[in-house]
Write a structure and sequence with these properties.
Blueprint: H1 8-16, H2 22-40, E1 43-46, H3 48-63, E2 75-79, H4 106-113, E3 117-122, H5 156-163, E4 169-173, H6 180-186, E5 189-192, E6 213-217, H7 220-230, E7 260-264, H8 276-291, E8 295-299, H9 307-322, H10 341-352, H11 355-368, H12 374-394, E9 400-404, H13 420-424, H14 431-436, E10 440-448, E11 451-459, H15 464-476
Parallel strand pairs: 2-3, 2-4, 7-8, 7-9
Antiparallel strand pairs: 1-3, 4-6, 5-6, 5-10, 9-11, 10-11
Length: 489
């Protein structure tokens, strides 16, 4: 039976050696989740019967010498905004209670085609709108390192599930940091690929020009392995990039000699409100890369100070448009005994959406309204172009950019729920990568007050191989990714 501390590589080795079966691994994951989830609330829905059936099929294939690949028989989890045929997907929202998908999203389908066994849907901020996984119609998820702290958001359930050893791999989505920030808070690796590298078909939309599916694992090498499976062009997604998928694992040679790591002054010298211990841990991580042969160079991302405002104008505008489809007519929650059509619309949405989702819909509707569109939404798109040009210029001088993932370690549950602006500022170091569409990864690089600190590495568009190469090299010279939450080790 798989122990909580096992990595993806160790799971696979136990299958290849015959020491364990896929059914045994899945049974262990389901059993452990049942016991731990009462305290952490990582999952909103388990699929025990379906997962065990899939595991038995994986065992049959392996016995007949027909294993589909390195992920065949491995238990994995998916965020609750990803659809799977015949399974419920609710986006942690009352408005989608009971919704059963008629199809499977591309990223999930590719995982399953590789033989991975989906054991359940993980908790999240409602419609991926949040940075703490407290904005869920279910219970808030808790951080395995310190259960009275948030795991981050919006993919907090996926991050906590990997950190607590419930599954070795989980999918999440990242609109403004929703993979990287919880990865930092929970001490795991979280990768947001280039926009368009992974199909969004089957991802319930929040902000369509920013959303991207990515992965949580314990190491950069494991993230590279999973990305090879889920990435690639998809004709069902018009924003999918028609580029071949590299063999990302082949880039992980441990050598960073001659590579240039850029440090943006705006994230360090001019960064206000960042925990000094977080900055110190990130600087030490960069020094480790320098000792391994990399060159460190200062770069500039001068429009960084506008990133959060720009993000929350564009994201909320797109959310206002995307969430208009949830009206009580076609699917999801419908108000009982409405007086008329208008009453059904109002009550269905008022009863179905939570406070944070309503806040963002109202803000987005406002910035798109007549008289304000040019002043807010159009201006935000213009600034977004400037941010993208900042990154283009920076990557002419460096191979990767290193920054803190978040300005602080995990904060307490309830600490910021009454102050949305403070919560939004949790994304100050992550939103720029989404606005520019570049790949970015968070990996553990130290601790502050007993909680993990995340190092963020960003690369040029489609340069996931470079980002993963540097992250893997760092992990060969450090052991932070091998640390486990004491209670769940």
């Amino acid at each position: 039976m798989a122990a909580a501390s096992e990595t993806l590589e160790e799971f696979r080795a136990s299958l290849d050696s015959g020491e364990s079966s896929s059914r045994a691994l899945v049974e262990a994951a389901l059993s452990r989740a049942e016991g731990i989830d009462e305290r952490l609330s990582c999952f909103v829905r388990m699929r025990a019967e379906g997962a065990l059936s899939d595991a038995e099929e994986a065992d049959r294939r392996r016995a007949e010498g027909e294993a589909r690949g390195d992920l065949d028989g491995i238990p994995v989890a998916i965020k609750d905004n990803m659809v799977m045929e015949g399974e419920e997907s609710s986006c942690a929202s009352r408005i989608l209670e009971g919704f059963v998908s008629p199809y499977t999203g591309t990223a999930v389908e590719r995982l399953r085609d590789a033989g991975a066994v989906v054991v359940g849907h993980t908790n999240m901020d409602e419609f991926a709108m949040g940075s703490s996984t407290e904005h869920s119609c279910f219970a808030p998820t808790r951080n395995p390192w310190k259960p009275d702290c948030t795991p981050g958001g919006s993919s907090g359930g996926s991050a906590a599930a990997v950190a607590a050893g419930l599954v070795p791999v989980a999918l999440g989505s990242d609109t403004g940091g929703s993979i990287r920030q919880p990865a930092a808070f929970c001490g795991v690796v979280g990768l947001k690929p280039t926009y368009g590298r992974v199909s969004r078909w089957g991802l319930i939309a929040y902000a369509s020009s920013l959303d991207q599916i990515g992965v949580f694992t314990r190491s950069a090498a494991e993230a590279a392995e999973v990305l090879e499976v889920i990435a690639g062009h998809d004709p069902l997604d018009s924003t999918s990039v028609p580029e071949p998928v590299p063999r990302f694992r082949e880039a992980l040679d441990g050598d960073v000699s001659g590579l240039v790591v850029g440090l943006p002054a705006e994230y360090f010298e001019r960064s206000e409100g960042c925990d000094p211990e977080v900055l110190a841990a990130v600087r030490e991580a960069v020094a480790t890369l320098e000792r391994a042969g990399a060159t460190v160079r200062e770069v500039s991302l001068p429009h960084t100070r506008y990133a959060v405002a720009t993000y929350y104008l564009i994201a909320t505008a797109e959310a206002s448009s995307n969430l208009a489809r949830f009206d009580g007519v076609r699917y999801g929650r419908r108000a009982s005994e409405p007086k008329d059509l208008g009453d059904m619309y109002r009550r269905s949405r008022s009863e179905g959406f939570g406070a944070e989702v309503k806040r963002r819909i109202v803000l987005g509707t406002y910035v798109l309204s007549a008289g304000y569109y040019d002043a807010y939404y159009r201006k935000a798109q213009q600034v977004r172009t400037l941010l993208r040009r900042d990154f283009d210029a920076a990557f002419e001088r460096c191979d990767v950019i290193a920054t803190p993932t978040a300005p602080e370690v995990a904060f307490g549950l309830g600490e910021k729920t009454d102050d949305p602006l403070r919560m939004y500022l949790s994304d100050i170091f992550t939103v720029s990568a989404n606005l520019a569409g570049v790949p970015a990864l968070s990996l553990p690089c130290g601790f502050s007050r007993g909680l993990p600190v995340g190092l963020q590495l960003m690369g040029a568009p489609l340069a996931e191989a470079m980002v993963l190469r540097v992250a893997d090299a760092y992990q060969r010279h450090s052991d932070h990714h091998r640390q486990r939450p004491p209670e769940f080790a």
